[in-house]
Here is the input.
Amino acid sequence: MIWESVVQPFYDFSFMRRALLGCIAISVGATPIGVFLMLRRMSLTGDAMAHAILPGAAVGYLVAGLSLGAMTIGGLIAGIAVALLSGFVTRVTALREDTSLASFYLISLALGVLIVSTRGSNVDLMHVLFGTVLALDDTALILLCSITSLSVLTLATLFRPLVLECVDPQFLRSVSRLSAVTHFTFLVLVVLNLVGGFHALGTLMVVGIIILPAAAARFWLASIGGLIVAAISLAMLSSLIGLLLSYHYSLPSGPAIILVAGLAYGMSLLFGPLGGLVWQALSRQHFESRKVDLP
Amino acid sequence: MTNRRILLRCVAAVVALSLSGPVVSQATEPTRVVATFSILGDMAERIGGKHLAITTLVGPGGDAHVYQPTPAAARAVSEAEVLIVNGLEFEGWLDRLINASDFNGMRVVATEGVEPIAFEDDKDEHTEIKHHDDHGDEHAEDEHHDSHGDEHAHRHDGAFDPHAWMNLGNAIMYVDNITAALAQANPDNTATFYENRDAYVAEIQSLDAEIQKLMSGLPESRRTVVTSHDAFQYFGRNYGLTFLAPQGLSTDSEASAQDVARLIEQMRVESISAVFVENIADSRLLQQIANETGATIGGTLYPGALSGPDGSAPTYLDMMRHNATTLAQALGS
Here is the structure.
């Protein structure tokens, strides 16, 4: 029974194995980024950057067709340009990071839509940008796994300064020159993971697998290592369940995966031991009943 | 005071212009025709020739399923005397465009009178396919019969398959509908239109016979074809081929893992080796399916958009001929 419904699909079809491998790569690489985004209150930055890579990918597509390389490089350039420009403006002028990032990503997004629309292309580009996890070929998988490895190695190297940036950026800035380096490297990692992920899940869906598991993990564990491990496990589990749902109930794969992650977030929100709503309600009741008992 | 007078004069001038406009155009200018996509534009061109000024909204290589109208399109529609549409809910964006552009010309539905293939029929075919599966080795599939209805919920937008032009017999009806409308809109050239129509229909019929001959030579075991999206049902019925697709009827829908798995399974069971990409659809998924089943990509088919003038399908007849020869080559080899 379990064999037939859980293992059999992956045993029978290589596209399922590839989809799962792609999702695991994204889970391992991108979810820790999501944890740091959450801790730095930059969750929406991920979404903004996902839009920012659109014109680069569009130009790459128009130049070289459905070439993985061209779209990846284009997306990287556009994403990093937006990240660097907004970072530069934040550090040099009075504008805050959120405002400058929003400005640049909106410019970038408009540019992307303009490019897509003026060149009425053979294949609807938005469709291309939505990617499909069922169509991962060898090069896409190699790209995804390389990005994950690079991302994990970089995170390991920059772990201490990154954590410090999360807890006390002022302190890090005062004791080390690594602050700016850390910040920009982190932004580059965000872009890298988004670009890798959009081949599998599309630019918009990939943000879901970055942010949702991290947010869900927050209700279970408090330590940063624990958060990362929990988030990665949740992301992998969501990918597996999402793919199986897509297989058994004929649902589109990308949304299925993200919705399972969303469900995990919802359950954590309710039942998570760290600030979950049910636990909050229970402890309040407990507190009130004690108050009643007192007199 | 003077301002108001100037304004009034302007209004009067505009009204006069707009009133005199059509009268002048009927005498000297060609009839302004808007066709929603390249195939209809090509047909109108063949029938009307130089007596028409044709604007095609979704040009060669464009995908009419997901078209986003531009202001230029709205302007073309508002100025059009004849608007040629496919119907059968193919152009989902059309009603909004017509409302927005206050079009008040004649609207021709090219599929008028065509016997549409309903999706219920499509479903029966799929059920039949399922039986094939069950005869195979995969018993695990049995459990998933119930979910079959769900699959259809996301596969189509309307009740009928809109790709009716893929049957050359239907194309004659398209041509007749368009000719009648043009004759009504431009009565001076009715004779020319009907002459062109007769020549065109003769060409269509001879191509139909040609393709019929080409397809009848194919062995019974090699009559199943896989394409990106489900656009070839009319073609398949006409020539006795079965078309399967991972993506639904619109290029807009996303394939589910189950759709893909079912297709691969069927390809394995029936040893289908002919897979074709389309000029308007994303080919990555199909490539993946071909890799998995060891099938080869047999070529590019043109389901609903002509190629540019340099491509292999610049006109409707070229498109049908190209599709037929590409299919016959891959299936016959």
